[in-house]
Specification:
mainly alpha
């Protein structure tokens, strides 16, 4: 199960990176196309959807690697049982908020599908299709939070703390700047 979840987080982060690369390719194609007198219709719509997809698909991956903003400043001051309980409380609250977000996003996407909403830009497709990246990204983030909550409840160190400790051990203090 651990390998499956780690592969899910990795794939999600890789897909976010691919979306960013596609934005770059699209912007370059627009720039060169403009010089050649070619117009790429709907490029702004596609770039917007790719931007949203890259942001939401990156959530689970960045959380697991200790790159997402969290309350580590306060938790790092605690030791032993107090730290463990603070971590449990913080992850539980986060799981509640992300769980609610997942429910709200799922409802939002379902209503877009149910009412046959169409994108308002140049590309006329059902809007729920690009909205799926929002839903899937939040779902993967929710799974990542629950995963680390389960790890902490077992008395182990969460993945984001392991990643942060590894960065510090290697002399990488870039997050402190």
């Amino acid at each position: 199960m651990r390998r499956l979840l780690d592969n899910l987080y990795y794939a999600s982060g890789a897909f976010a990176a691919i979306c960013l690369a596609l934005i770059c390719v699209l912007m370059l194609a627009q720039a060169f196309g403009r010089e050649a007198g070619l117009l790429i219709r709907g490029a702004d719509d596609i770039a917007a959807w790719l931007t949203a997809a890259s942001a939401f698909f990156a959530l689970g991956h960045t959380f697991r690697h200790g790159e997402l903003v969290r309350v580590g400043l306060w938790i790092d001051m605690l030791k032993g049982r107090m730290r463990r309980w603070a971590e449990i409380i913080a992850l539980s609250i986060t799981a509640c908020f992300v769980g609610y977000m997942l429910w709200a996003v799922a409802k939002f996407v379902f209503e877009s599908w149910k009412f046959h909403e169409v994108a308002q830009g140049l590309i006329r497709i059902p809007i729920w299709i690009p909205q799926l990246s929002f839903l899937l990204g939040v779902l993967i983030f929710f799974i990542a939070v629950i995963d680390d909550l389960a790890v902490v409840l077992r008395g182990e160190t969460p993945a984001y703390q392991v990643a942060e400790d590894a960065r510090r051990a290697s002399g990488d203090f870039s997050e402190l700047t």
